Amino acid sequence: MEAVMRMNGIVNGIVWGPWMLTLLVGTGVYLTIILGFPQIRYFGFMFKTVFCKRKKVEGKEGSISSFAALSTALASTIGTGNIAGVATALHLGGPGALFWMLISAVFGMTTKFAEVTLAVHFRDKDDLGNIRGGTMYMLEKGTGQKWLAWLFAFFTTFAAFGIGNAIQANSTAEGLNLGFGIPHVATGIVMAILTALVIYGGLKRISEVTTYLVPVMAVFYVIGAVITVGLHSDLIIPSLAKAVKYAVSDPMAMPGALAGWSIKLALTKGIARGVFSNEAGLGSAPLVHATAEVDHPVRQGVYGLFEVFADTIVICTLTALAILTTGVLTSNADLTGAQLTLSAFQTVLGDTGVMILSVGLAMFAFSTILGWYWYGETGAVYIFGTKVIPVYKILWVIVIVIGAWGGGGAFLSNIWNMSDTMNGLMAAPNLIALLWLSGKLRELVKDFDDKRKSGELE
């Protein structure tokens, strides 16, 4: 394991080094400019699209509704990254990590908008007639670079076991163990059984479960976070001010600063954990958005805008403010991950806070395991064909138990580090596809805007 982690550290230093961060944020900035700031132009339209019911249009191709696709994608993005990932970023990089997390999210909204739009445009069907789409199809059909498409599918197939499975199971087991004393293995077995019951019903059953689960879990967690932050409302502005100040100045100058904080760590961990949470630039969420029944690719792209907004700008910010306003970041310097967030909730809400976070963490992680299953399966189907589906389902359920059983400490830290690396490896071919196909993206956006103006589309 030591040898594996040393190698992982080398690769991680490359994929999350200056060049990758520049490519990741730079792609979002570039697309924002050439598309006319869609996160601003479509901001009001975004809420109307997501929350207002539109009349059904006959003849639309797809497997599930646009809202079901959004729910499944949000099930994947709203996970332990919102609780444990944000806390880890603050622990390693200080308050400035929140600033860089939000900056990356603003431009990440456009990145997600772009990748979802292109995924719908270039989608295809597998051998069983199921709609499939994502970066591999964008690369194969849009750029002709099938080797890059295969590489992305390979990274997705195996990254899913860490990012969307073992980490989620492990963090859930830790949370329920801390909150209720439930053994790790028991949590793993129960989660494995529940997951099997859902994924064996295919995408439709996954989307049905997440359509109900996501709104409930989001509201449940947000209420707890709002109460925690609200009882320290006088510290909200000072906390945000610290986030801005120590994003561009030495965090070690902050009273109570932890050894090791630096601007570089604030920037890299803020962006990395932000991407881990909202997955903008990874090319993961388009794998399910591509299956939506929608009248135009850009309309589904607008759902992608909302996905990042809800995940990072709302939920991640509330988690960060709960940690900063309660002061646990410096008063509990030995804590990180979910334990740090748990401490923040417990400071205000006592045992109730522990229960809220434990249950919230369990729901977040379970929904992420469901959503990421589809991502991993889609990658595996692209490489091996539909015959791999039964095998992938069995492996997925087994890894849940292994991940939960692993415990915390070094095990959890190693999984986080390896998942960070896999994130970067997935992002590279996806960002290449977005830049390569930016001309086609502009055509699609212009076509959508023209059709809305003419009344052809709502």
Question: In terms of topology, how is this protein built?
Answer:
Layout: H1 2-15, H2 18-34, H3 38-41, H4 43-51, E1 64-65, H5 66-77, H6 80-93, H7 96-121, E2 124-125, E3 131-132, H8 135-143, H9 146-180, H10 184-199, H11 202-230, H12 236-248, H13 263-278, H14 286-289, E4 292-293, H15 297-326, H16 328-331, H17 337-349, H18 351-384, H19 389-405, H20 410-436, H21 438-454
Parallel strand pairs: 1-4
Antiparallel strand pairs: 2-3
Helix pairs in contact: 1-20, 2-7, 2-20, 4-15, 5-11, 5-15, 5-18, 6-13, 6-15, 6-17, 7-12, 7-13, 7-15, 8-9, 8-20, 9-10, 9-18, 9-19, 9-20, 10-18, 10-19, 11-15, 11-17, 11-18, 15-17, 17-18, 18-19
Give the termini distance in whole angstroms: 55 Å
Structural class comes to mainly alpha
Q: Helical proportion? A: over 70%
Shape: globular
Low-confidence stretches: none
Q: How would you write the strand order of the largest sheet?
A: 1-4
For the sheet with most strands, the description reads: 2 strands, parallel
β content, as a range? under 5%
